[in-house]
Structures are given as structure tokens and as C-alpha cells.
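Can't paste images in this forum, so I'm doing it all in text. The chain is below; anyone willing to post the predicted C-alpha cells underneath?
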Amino acid sequence: MSEQTHSLEAIQDIRRLMQRSSRFLSLSGLSGIAAGTWGLIGSWFAARRIGAYYDDYNRSGYSLEAFIALKQQLVMMAACVLALAMASAFFFTWRRTRRQGLSIWDRSARQLTINMMIPLATGGLLILALLRTNEWSYVAPLSLIFYGLALVNASKYTINDIRYLGLLEIALGLICTQYTGYGLYFWAIGFGLLHIVYGFIMWWKNERSDAS
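Text version of the structure:
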């Protein structure tokens, strides 16, 4: 019986090592919570800026200069939110890998990054093309859809739960195509609330014991 127990433990160790070599399993749930928090803060600031633009529009009418300024400010806000989310993800994941005595940039991490960046870069270039032609209607749904595709594509190289988050983002983006006037609310849900819920679940499942 003891030999069987040792054999099972050896098999489980081998399985864990094989999974570790092919998947990056050190993503931190706290990075999802941080990204969601930045997403909600960015959505709040964007809503205030858009509200101020329409207040001026109702008082003074349409102004091309004001519209261009609004577009530039919203793009800058989105870039800041993305940068802060990526910095938070790197910090919390780096901290977790250091505690585990692992490398943050191994073969599985490189595969994860490459497979995630392909849909993200494609969607980003398409959205920039839409912005250049002042086609704003589908910016919000396309950003959610391509982000979801990036998560699904990257899920082969990390924890499986990323796939479910990606599918939810895709579904939310498709629904948003029918309600394009409410894109900011869908952004807040997709990039804010879903990230926070996902991050908390991941922290509870994988990291709660580390913090205790």
C-alpha cells in the first residue's frame, strides 16, 4: 500500500512538472482585481469627460476642435488605463513567481504573451483605423471581442479559467454591437467588473493559502 502511495505521488509530481513546463500557472488573481479597478476608474473619468463635452455641445453647438480634443483625451485615458493594468499585472505576477522561486519569463510565459498579442494587435490596429475615420460606434464592442479572443487564444498556455473570462468578454462585446450608444457601460462591465470578479475567484482558489 505504501509503495502504491509513493507511486501515485511520483506520478502526480511528474504531471505537475509537465504541466508547469507547458503552461504559465503563476498568474496572480490580484492582477485581475487591479486591472478591473483601473478599468472602473478610467470609465468614470471617461463618463465625466463625455458628459462635459455634451454640456458644452448643448450650450454652444458642435465644435470640431472640441470633438477632436475629446477623441484625443479618451484615447489617452484608454492608453493610461492599459499601461496601469499591464504594470499591475506584471508586478503582482512577478511577486508571485518570486515567492514560488520561478522565472517570470520562461518558455510558457513567452508562448502566453505571443498568443495573446496576436488578436490584441489585430484588434488594436482595426480600432485605430476606425478612429481615423471617426467611426466610433463599434470601438467598444470590437475592443471587448478582440480582448476576449486574445484571452481564449492565450488560455492554452495558462490556467483554464482565462478561457471562461475570454468567452464572457466576447459575449459582452457581441451584445454591445446591438447597444452601441452604451459602449462605456459595457466597457465598465467587461474591463472592470468582470476582471474584479475573475481576479477574486482566482485569488480565492490559488493564492488564499499563500497569504495565510
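Residues 38 and 84 are 7 Å apart (CA to CA). Helices lie at 2-22, 29-60, 64-100, 107-132, 139-154, 161-176, 183-211.
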